[in-house]
Amino acid sequence: MKCKSCKCNIEKWKEVRWNLYTYCTPKHRQEHQRELARKQKEKDLKKREAEKKREKKEKVLERKAKKREEKKTSIAVLTKKLDKIVSEYIRKRDCLLTTWTITHWVCITCWEKKEYSHFDAGNFVSRANRATRWNEFNISLQCKVCNCWGWWRQYEHWIALDKKWGQWTAQRLIEDWKQVKIYKSWDLLDMIMDFITKLWNLK
Fold first, then answer.
1. pLDDT in tens, 187-198
2. Inter-residue contact 122 to 139 (CB < 8 Å)
């Protein structure tokens, strides 16, 4: 049998006399046990440090995820609110422009006159791009047929916009639509306040 400390061969009589089992002397036994305790302490310390680093990293990731979620939620809520206010403004504006009342309106593409509740706030170019999504020249009152299924009336919509807002209006909207624009939360808040003011002036 070899000593765990010095790796020397342990004599049989020492093993029996001192009951050392795997150590050649009591001193070596104490030294080896101290060494084992030191290594175990270092191991526990490293484990605690690794655990602290892991917890710290998890907290940082959690905070970042929370901020991203709050930002998304904030922008989503503001976008929904802005869409609602812009839609209300366009409805009242075009009712007043076409019939001078807020009870009836005229579709910009088919020129059919209907009651206030039977219409949509239709976009000339897609509202998917935010560069023109809230451009008040891009949005006009349309009947549900023209807005949802009237893609063949796009030319009439083009002509009607140029008559309504001036020449090259439709062309400028198409050029703006090709751009990429990113709005921050404060930009959306500014636009909300602007359209609230315009809506208030209509009333």
1. 998 999 999 999
2. yes
Side-chain-facing half-sphere of 163: CA atoms under 13 Å: 10
CA terminus-to-terminus distance, the chain: 102
**pTM attached to this predicted model:** 0.61
- Domain membership of residue 154 (yes or no) is yes
CA 195 to chain centre: 24
Residue 128 near residue 136 (C-beta atoms within 8 A): no
Q: Tokens 């001036």, residue?
A: 166
β-pairing, 139-142 with 104-106? unpaired
Residue 43 lies in a domain: no
Domain region containing 131: 56-202
What SS3 state is found at 67? helix
In this structure, is residue 10 part of a structural domain? no
